[in-house]
Structures are given as C-alpha cells and as structure tokens.
C-alpha cells in the first residue's frame, strides 16, 4: 500500500466523523451548540471505547476480509461508510434515549428515602415535620439548562466521575466473588467476559442512580426548618466513599491481577467501558437534571398535601388516559405491521436474509463475510433503532403528553396511560407480535472487528460492526431484571415529562400568610385557558402576569375594563385576589381575561407547588477572606452598625477554636445566639456571613450562597493573591441588592 492509498484510507475512515464535527463551529455560541458539543464529545468517546479499543485484543489476528460479489462497485463502499457511521450514532443514542432516563427518573425516588429517614430522626409530628420541609424552587427547566451550560462549570461532573471510578473496582470484585460463591458462573473473568461486559452497563446504571440521588439532595437544597440537610448528606457520603473506597479499590484491582493475571487486558477494557458510560452520563447531567428536580419536588409536594391532591383529582378524567393509550398502541400496531414490515422487506428482501445478516455479524463467525452483509447489519441497527425505539418513543410521548394535558394531573395521566400500554404490549408479545414496550431486549455486545475490503481498488482497512452473544444467566439475569424489565417504561415517562415541562415559563410569588410567615408558590405557564368551572370554583390557584411585549400606550382602542385590568397587573396578581365575588361580574371578568389571554396581553400560570417559610429580618452582611481579613460589608437595617474589623476577627477566632477543640473537618455553617442567627457560606478563597433576626430559611441561605459565588467569580483574579486593598470592592452594593431583593 503506497502513501496515497494510506492517506485515502485515513480520510475515508475519518471524513464521516469530521462531517459530524463541522456544524458545531456554526452554532457553538448558541444553546444548541452547547448541547451539540456534549453529544459529539459523547460520540467520540463511545467510538473510541466501543470500536477502536477492542483492537488491543485483536493484535496478531489477521483482519477479516469483507469479500465482494460480482457487480459490487464504489457506491456500495460509500454506502457502507455512511451506514457504518449511522450505526455508530444509533448505538450511541441508545444511552441518552433509553439508559439515562432510567437513572434520572428513579433517582428522585431514592432521594425521597433519604428525606424520609432524616424526618424520622427529628422531634415532632409527621405533619409538623413535613410542613417544615423547604427546597430551592427551581426556575424554568429551559432557563436552568441554558444557564448551566453557558456557565461552563464542570466541578460537579468531575466529582461524580471520580466517585464512579472509585466505586467500580469494588463493585466489580464483589460481583466476581458473588458469582464464584453461587457457582453459577465460572471462576475466570475471561470465560464470562461477554455476559459480564454487558452487565457492567447495568452495574453502572445502578451506581449512577445512587450517586445522582445524592446530587438531587444538593441541587434541590432540601432543608428542614431552615437547615440544609441535603447538602450535608451528599458531602458526608462522598467523603466516606472516597476515604474508604479509594484504598479498597486499589486492593480490588490487585486481587483481580493476583487471581487472574491473564485477564488484565479485559479488566482494562471493562474499566474503559465503565468510564465511557460514566462520561456520557455526566455530559447529559445538566440537560436532564432539571426534570429530575421537578419530579423530586412534585413527590414532596404530594407527600405534604396528599389529602388535598386526592380531592383535586377528577376520577372521571381516567377515560383520557385509557383512550390515548389505546390510540397510541393502535398507531404503533399499524406502523409496525405495515410500514415497518414493508420497509424491512424492501431493505433486506426477506426475514431469512435478515437472519443471515445477523449470523454474519457474529465476531466469532467462520468462513466468508461479504461487504454487503456488513452493510446490511449496520442498516439493521439503524432500522431497529429508528423503528422500534425512536418512532415508538415519539408516539408514546405525544399521547402521554395529551393524557397529562387532559387529565390535568401528572399522577392520574401516567397511572391511566401506562398500564393499558403495558397490558397491550404483553398481550401482543404472547401472541407472537411486537409490543410497544420491550420487556426483554436482546442482550448482545456490539464492538468493532478489524477488517478490510478492496472495494476502492486497494486494501481499505476499517472496523466493521460485529457482536458477541451476551445472554445473562443465573444471578446476573436476576440482578438485571429491575433495569431490563422497566427501562422502556421509565424511558416513556421521563421523555414525556421533559417535553411537557421544557418550554413552560415559571414564576415565583411570595404570599403573606401572617406577620411571621410567607408562602412561596411556583407557577408554570398553561397551554390552554381554564374552563369556567375551574375558574369559578377556585380549586387551582392561577397567577396573572402581563405579557412581556405589551405596551399600555398602544391600547387606545381597547375597552376601559381591559386597560384597567392590564394596569392593575403591572406586578403579577393571584387570580383569587382580583376576581369579583358577584356572579355576573365574575362571568364578565372571566370572558375579559379570556380575551386578554387569547390576544397575548396576559400570561396565565397555574400553581405547581408551594411551601411555607418564616420571615427572616436581614441585619448585616460580611464578606471575609479565608485568613480572616474583612473584604466587604453591607447593612440591611439602619440601626445595625458593627465594626467590620471586629466581626472578621470574631469569625477567625471562632472557626480556629472549633477546629482545634473538635478536630472536625466540617465547616461551621450556622451560629445561633438568642434572636440572632448567623448564616455562613463558603467559596474557594472567601466566605460570607449574614446576620438575621429569626430563623434561617432556604431562601436567605441560597441568596447568601449565590452572592458568595457571584462575588468570587467577579473578583477571581484579585482574590487569587489579595494584597488587602479594599478599593476593588467598594461598588458592590448593587450586587447585594439585586441578589437579596425581596
């Protein structure tokens, strides 16, 4: 092979990947570009581990020839390259579309277990403790995703990846010990490499679900009576796992090598495979996390108000869930039995030919493999992915969203839609058909096999798509059941909720309850104007907000009542506060609201969740360098006036004393002294101390946390090696006032 042929071979292998990368440079500054960057990064690491890394096991083995038939031309070769990249993308897409939704849907329920255990340790009745639960109410999922992706902070992802890598050797070694004890699998890791390799994906899912449940506690800032216990649980668990896990992981690796030195290459591949899955997980963390937070908060809100929630559900709406479920399955049945079957026969000629192609794709196949067979297997991967996963998912998500919309209840929509879909899928599988939900997906391990063909007039070396049989038996089968039997069901639920919430606009409203308490309510935008029954009965709270682009000066031709209503909602108003009590006036007001809504003059938002919290009267704020020097101070109350130098010295003395006497590595977060509470939040080089009257709340602490992070980001260069000059920080009153605005 001469130089030109080598260059041509490299280009033919690399061009499809380069084509995938090119669009990023045109959209890199947009949100789509940020998401696309993570997708491309995931595809690259997936390609390296799934296709390229297996070459290490094929050194010394002659490449398999992809033989040609009479009449095969260059068009077949180009089609093969395109189909090969398509099958790569389809195989990768299985992770974000099917595998990751399991993690992000189940983790909130595990987080609830942590919350429940924490409440059991507290004094008081169950209702009192539930009433004291607060959390950081999230903004619109879209806005949160956008803010997180543009921030470019990967610190959390690094922590998660590090912990997953620490836990893998322990988990894998314990699994091997379990297999040996049960005697179901052989003692050598090499003998059961295929099944164990496939199970590593499931093992990763279980570990990632556990770890992400801790991340939800951190992100939601779940607190009880103003004390943020979620962050503490996460930090303590991570610290314990690092401390204990790191040395045990090293010991596990040594034991692996001592017991089976010949398996070192396979162990490296298992680690690479696990790293790949973990890397893809953290790439999509900030994209999927907001929906998990909504699920978590929804569960807590239902837990706190389950009696009211049951009363608000209209049982007669179950018909919508049942009807949309049947309609979804009917459409899938028509597509599967007519469109998909016809397309399959058009591409592969016959089911028998399809079986021949699958058999030829075996990594251990003996005899000849033709190029058209390898092309056919790549096309089959694409076809199965599009027909059996993408299309069925789209159908299910569309109709479940309709069920959620018409039942007006997340719980009622899901529990009426999914059971029918599950039942119909089981019935059709029993009678030899394809169900919309796949309860027993095929277990095979896709990889790359060193191959070559002469389709381009020279020996063109490539990695053909091949597979190992990886059927799980014995204890591996039973351990995999929770994931394999439910992944497609949870997949439908998660993507439906993501589509349902992603474009909703969220607004927060604080409502005065009494002299000491406020209620924080989160409202989300609605897709259609409420019925008169919902409006008149007032069971659901609505928020009226003026449309963003409405200018009162341009409404000269509108009626006076329209102008008057628009003028009254310069700030958002809760519907019950402005709705008339007289029946005729109530009807008139309803149709006026509907007119304004339909013409885009107002936005109407529905309550999603709420909680009560106690007012905190802010006194003074201090930003202090990590060596005890005061940097910045701000007084919220005119009568509050303390020397910043004395306050800084006090904190330096207290923190030093506590560290010396308790030998604790925990950071001091709160100081209670009579009617004064001091909240403390830490950055990398500074910490903030906020003096308040009354009890601490999630709202005040989260604002203090935001201020510390914003202050440190703004002055990162100055604080890296601060000389003591205060002139840099004199103009930050506006930053404080913006963050701590009521």
Query: How many separate helices?
Result: 26
Number of strands: 17
The total domain count is 4
Mean pLDDT: 83
Helix and strand composition category:
alpha+beta
Span between N and C termini?
73 Å
Strand arrangement, major sheet? 8-9-12-10-11
Helix content: 55-70%
From the alpha carbons, calculate the radius of gyration and give it in angstroms: 30 Å
Strand content: 5-15%
Largest sheet: 5 strands, antiparallel
Tertiary shape: globular
Q: Spans of 5+ residues with little confidence (pLDDT < 50)?
A: 185-191
Short summary:
Helices cover 61% and strands 14% of the residues. With 742 residues, the protein is an alpha+beta fold.
Mind explaining what this structure looks like?
With 742 residues, the protein is an alpha+beta fold. The chain folds into four domains: 3-288 and 456-462, no CATH class; 313-440 and 485-503, no CATH class; 506-614, no CATH class; 617-739, Beta-Lactamase. The protein has 26 helices and 17 strands. The chain has a five-stranded antiparallel sheet. The longest helix has 47 residues, at 74-120. The radius of gyration is 30 Å and the shape is globular. It starts with a helix and ends with a helix.
Primary descriptors:
single chain; 742 residues; alpha+beta; 4 domains; five-stranded antiparallel β-sheet; 26 helices; 17 strands; 61% helix; globular
